[in-house]
Amino acid sequence: MWRLNKVRHKAGRLGGSLEEFKLKKREHEKALRQARRDRQLVSKRLLLNEDEDQPEVNMDTASGEQDVVTLFHTLQHSGPEREAHLKALSKALHDPTAQLTFIKQENSMHLLVGLLTGSNASCRLQAVRCLHELSHSSHANVAPACLPATPYLLTYLSGQSTKFTELCLYTLGNLCPESDAVKEKLLAQGIIPALASCIENQRHNLAVVEAVGFTLSQLLQAKDAAAKIIPLVLASSLPSHLLSVLTPDPKFGLAPAIECAWCLHYLTCSMEDNRVLLAQGALLKCSCLLVSLGAAVAEGNKEDGMELLICPLLRCMGNLLSSCPVENLSTEVGDIHVVVALCALLQAYLQSQPALARESAWVLNNLTAHSSALCSALLTLNLVPGLIQLLPFSQGINTMILRVLANIAHKKKEFCVQLAHLGLLSALYATLKMADQEMVTLSMDVLFMLVVSGPQVAEEFVKQGGLLLIEAIQYNSEGEIRRRATYLLEHHLVSYSSYCSVNTSAQFVFPFLTRTNSALNKD
Amino acid sequence: MLQPELARLLAGGQVLLKSCDEDCPSGDTHELRQREADEGNPFNYTPQLIHLHKDHQLFEDGDIHRHMYLQDLYISEADDKTTLSVSEFACHISGCSAVFSTLEEYEHHYNSLHRHVCCSCRRSLPSARLLDIHIQEWHDSLFNILAQRQDMYQCLVEGCGQKFRTSKQRKDHLIRLHKYPPDFRFDKTKKDRGTRETKRQLQHKDAAMEVVDDVCESEGVCEVMCDVLSDQPERGESMETHVSRDDEAARMAESASAEEHAGLSAAAHSAGNTGTEPPKPRYSYRLVFKEVCCKPLDVFRLFLAQYCCTQRGHVVPFIRCF
């Protein structure tokens, strides 16, 4: 089980400054981003013993290697000290060089598998620990060396020993991303049914549940998961178990819920059609959870790591909504306060995790796209001014928020009038001048909807100097935007120009135009 | 909305979402959109459900955060600095690529360089009044004719009201009475233009209040305008020929079906009369639009500039043409 505070305390004790630590993290983060771009983003977990805080390498490499070889030779002969030697071996195998040395020893894996499946329970535990260390290696040759052990690891998943099962699971989880061949082998050996029955039988044991979640998430992240793995998972009992774990246990913490939520995210984003998950109430579950998480956040109870759970829940909800037929929306979404929760999350995470704010806005878009009731809720619950205040923020936040507002405007003319009164019209004066062309296009679209909603809005717009603004847009570098500006002026604003202040000599022009327009039977 | 308000709402108990009659993909603006669509309406916003796949860009930050956690490198938000950024503003006038961090900077740029621009010579003037005067004195042949017989050169100082027979007289007046410098930038005579322009261009590259022939070198005057300008003189010159060709069409100006040349020709007809009083336009705004394929407002402005007011604001557009 992972405790989030551990890392920070580690840093302090190591003697290095927190700044150095942060620098190291930044570099690591850059590497992860590049890996993601290459579609190679993979992580492994190392389950540490309770009695050790970190894999400290006390010995230098050379002696480490020597130890491994010595230990290996010792272990080849049975004896009462075997368990102790195994334990020493598992510690020695922290070191990457030692790992390489070990697997190069002839029959080393055979020995470990033998000990793993032997009659001595303590030796089994230490043997799996050794395998776990090896599985964590990023070296191309080391982890695959563990493959002979997998059928046994899978068999042991139905066992009852917590620590042992956890180690088996994390070892399997580390092996999953190795290669397609490994995945195929694991699938053939029945990893999915094994995981399903494990989570079912160990439902009460949250440490094991977390480990199952992690292992499954490793499988589901595969590039071709949609073709082979996901259908098998959806056909099993795993989805319903994942959903049941989503509500975090207050004592145990967020970790199991986090793993299961990420599994669900990988399931929902890979499928265009999420009927199976929708039928199991996945959307409703995510929605309810987000309401309670949003409430906690709004009250100021932002736990460390909460965003690790909120993020996949948002994604599940967003993608499930995109497959949910609009007539089922009310049953699937449940409480309209989910829009309140999303706004709370938007505001709470805007500074610290702008990406989370952006994802919340995306879910709001999917909620409001085809639902008049939810659009109305945003207005009646007075959430719109808060959204308008977010329009200055870039990197996808303002474009998504503007879409939400456009969705509201698109539903009814009365909504447009309300939006204008709440300050959207004034905000457009700024958004129409933003550097992002998508903002300008969306702003034009919203302006159009507001202006055609009724004479009051159009008049107000013209009174505030809107004509000049639109005329400038007629010289925009984008043809599509120019066309829109012209159309807006031509069809919808000219008859309001008499509302602007003119001097006497111009007055005869505009009234004339208004009369002419009506003579031509224009609106 | 403040968080406490939201917290209160969320604590208030569940309110179930009820399905509405209006919950259908097309919404109740269907009819309106139908009508609009028929008329070549370019606005086509439709709400869209957005599905994001696993590797989508929007998911990058969240994925990184997840993997940092898996690798025991979790960064608590208290330690991390924000990556939130604010939108920049940009001048979208075709040909101008200026970018600004605040709206005020944008407005200043726009008002200084794009607001009062002469269509004919692309000069940017600092105010609507000076632009009017510029157009009158530089690009109005009628002005030249009238100036032979009466005092037409207005004093540049607002409120002074005096007029002079020649621009030199005006200049003397400005220097003598209003203490203007002899080389006031916005009182160049036409013959100054050719000799001094290149020098000025070299000196004032950044501000570029005076624009010369090559529009692209100056800041803030659009290429689109160039297209407009290359059209406009032609139209101006051929106005009279339009009159003779499309007289009949002009009479049809009032009918709803009149198209294309009618508007302009009616307008041209008015322009052809060089009487002292501005004739009332007998065209329709809508028809005038049809004449100019994508800049409908320009021809309209043409008449405003010539015959109407010097009023700034939304009545008189920011770019005047002759």
UniProtKB/TrEMBL annotation, chain A:
What keywords tag this UniProt record? Coiled coil
Q: Coiled-coil intervals in this record?
A: 18-45
Query: RNA-binding: present as a keyword of the record?
Result: no
Protein name, UniProt field: Transmembrane and coiled-coil domains 6
Species this protein is from:
Sparus aurata (Gilthead sea bream)
Source organism phylogeny: Eukaryota, Metazoa, Chordata, Craniata, Vertebrata
UniProtKB/TrEMBL annotation, chain B:
> Which PROSITE patterns does this UniProt record tie to the protein?
ZINC_FINGER_C2H2_1
Compositional bias (Basic and acidic residues) spans?
234-251
Q: Where are the transmembrane segments?
A: none
Q: Where is this region: Disordered?
A: 234-278
Among SMART domains, the record links this protein to: ZnF_C2H2 (SM00355)
Annotated ranges, domain C2H2-type? 91-114, 155-178
**Highest taxon listed in the record's lineage:** Eukaryota
Q: Which PANTHER family match?
A: ZINC FINGER PROTEIN 511 (PTHR21354)
Q: What is the name of this protein?
A: Zinc finger protein 511
**Organism whose genome encodes this protein:** Sparus aurata (Gilthead sea bream)
